[in-house]
Specification:
disordered N terminus; disordered C terminus; three-stranded antiparallel beta sheet; 8 strands
């Protein structure tokens, strides 16, 4: 409404319009957030079906940089992977083509990224001399069969000799170019575990866990008494903190002196519940017995460690060993071999 039209409308119409606008501004407004969305929306799900390429190499369906950063999101996630790598390296039998250090890196990449790479370096007569690990975070499969590239950054690329790179993939129902790690379904639990830890850490850093309001509404307490209480509270900080405070108020009223906590985090969040639930999710995704990574039982015993180690090696480590032996078929030599499992050594005192 312009100034001329407002003058022509008269004061009554102007007041009515202002009143209606005020009522609209004071009215209760309600809105709803959108439905919960997962990390993998429709667009990202399609990436598991087809990998985008730039004409030379394919890009992985899952960000390798993201998987590398997510490796340390929670102790049980990284510890379960490290346990498998250590057990594989413990039983690995080094060969003239593949040493223990390159095998450890190869196994770690396979378990974290879902795909791993070894470069075959030949001698002068084109026979395999040694196998060198190539970091899966930057290794890309070429569009043409047998071509691989190492791309650590923008405009930084190195092409391997054609047919010189072995790729081991963790199979996935929607992917045939790259592999997808087995623990993808537990990443959300890992992020929740990390968020709960960071929230509690920030809570302690800002000091809210120790704050309170000293509410004094007692008529028998004079100003001099209040100053003495204030001085005693100040002196309770620092080196001599956590001192007890004695307050004597004869004929005082009930609730005349109150200690009101600013916030009580134990009653506001489910920190222990979140940590336990997300830990169980991650261990289930890795299929790792909790007693093998130092989980302390809370309600029931976890069973003997030696029996859990034996079953874990039988059901998890040996199938992984079979995957790594696939390298021998590609190379034509026995570059990978493993020693048989040996149970824990139990010392028995000889009878006198």
């Amino acid at each position: 409404m312009t100034e001329t039209s407002a003058m022509a409308a008269g004061p009554r119409e102007t007041d009515a319009a202002d009143e209606a606008a005020a009522q609209r501004s004071n009215a209760i407004q309600a809105f709803a957030f959108g439905d919960p969305e997962g990390v993998l929306d429709r667009r990202e799900l399609l990436q598991h079906v087809e990998c985008w390429h730039n004409g030379r190499w394919y890009h992985p369906p899952v960000s390798t940089d993201g998987l590398a950063r997510a490796f340390d999101i929670a102790p049980h996630h990284a510890s379960a992977i490290r346990l498998k790598v250590n057990l594989l390296a413990k039983h690995f039998r080094p060969s003239r083509w593949l040493d223990r250090a390159n095998f450890r890196k190869f196994a770690l990449d396979f378990l974290v990224m879902g795909h791993a790479y070894l470069e075959r370096r030949d001698n002068m007569i084109r026979q395999p001399l040694r196998l060198v690990h190539s970091l899966a975070r930057y290794t890309r499969r070429g569009v043409e069969e047998g071509r691989y590239f190492f791309v650590p950054g923008w405009r930084q690329e190195h092409e391997f000799a054609p047919g010189s790179v072995f790729q081991l993939n963790q199979e996935h129902v929607g992917q045939e170019i790259y592999g997808v790690p087995e623990y993808m379904s537990a990443l959300q639990s890992g992020f929740l575990n990390e968020a709960a830890t960071l929230f509690r850490r920030r809570y302690y850093l800002n000091g809210s866990h120790a704050g309170f309001v000293f509410y004094l509404n007692e008529e028998t307490v004079t100003n001099e008494d209040a100053d003495a209480i204030r001085k005693a509270l100040k002196e309770s900080k620092g080196v001599g903190n956590f001192k007890n405070l004695f307050l004597h108020a004869p004929k005082g009223k009930k609730d005349g002196v109150q200690i009101i906590p600013i916030s009580e985090v134990a009653a506001k969040d489910e920190f222990l519940g979140i940590k336990s639930t997300t830990r169980d999710d991650m261990l289930a995704a890795h299929r790792t017995p909790p007693q093998l990574i130092g989980v302390i039982p809370q309600n029931a015993a976890l069973g003997p460690v030696d029996k859990a180690s034996e079953i874990f090696h039988l059901n998890e480590i040996e199938p992984l060993q079979a995957r790594f032996i696939e390298l021998n078929d590609w190379l034509g030599y026995e570059a990978v071999a493993f020693d048989p499992y040996k149970g824990p050594v139990v010392a028995v005192a000889a009878a006198a």
